[in-house]
Specification:
This protein is an alpha/beta fold and 301 residues long. The chain has nine helices and 14 strands. The relative contact order is 0.13.
Length: 301
Amino acid sequence: MDAVRLEAVTKRFNTLTAVEKLSFSIPEGKVFGLLGPNGAGKTTTLRMLMRVLIPDEGSIEVLGTPADDRTPDAIGYLPEERGLYPRMKIREVLVFLAALKGLTEAEADRGARQWLERLELGEWVNKKINDLSKGMQQKVQFIAAVLHRPPILILDEPFTGLDPVNAGVIKDIMLELRDQGSTIILSTHRMEQVEMMCDSICLIDHGRPILAGELKAIKRSFGKNTVRIEYTGNGQFLDLPHVVERLNRHGAAVDVKLRPGANAQEILKAAVADGVEITRFELVEPPLNDIFIEKVSSTNA
């Protein structure tokens, strides 16, 4: 069964169409990436799922039934903007938010303390929210989303403010929840996290879908048109406009997108001729970041 299904959903604000005829489905127990540039309509779509906004056209189904006022109870929502009461203590705000989702105070208190210990916030349980760092607040926000054990999680930029260690902890917990049957909708600009976690994606721009499907199949469809090169020396050997369409540099490494019909061996020959030491030279599928840029750029051309 699909956990979520949208059919031709449209949302307008006066003369602005924020989302237009958007359709996608998410099977239960999968991680789905809702992607797009700033202002693409992602947050509007998530708010419609949460019934904060109501579509003007189209339909939304959640867990096999049309979305209604009870739908938010089945969803844990981590918004991009902070949604915590800054003057409340951590325990109080978590228990209060969990009670809104139907947990008793005892259940919420027990669960909150377990999650706080797991995320190394146990000693802060009686501190006020505004005493916490941005990263700590983000972890509390994450706990608020998962505390009532919802079958569906909507996580809008869940790694904001987190250092690499804590981002890794949250990622592992998300995958653990998926393995336990939760369906996760992830909205983020961090394409490397999407590649590591998502089973399928929908890329939207100006409120319309421009790329959707199973992530592995999407990457395969673009072919191995990128050369990943690690080298020591001068990078002038890459100045081959008849071969190279675009470069994405990472220090001493670079992803080279080839022009249609170009031969990657010409790059290798140029590197050898310039005396550059090559430690990696591999044809790969393009990274999702490059696919994102290509599709959005072509749409706006």
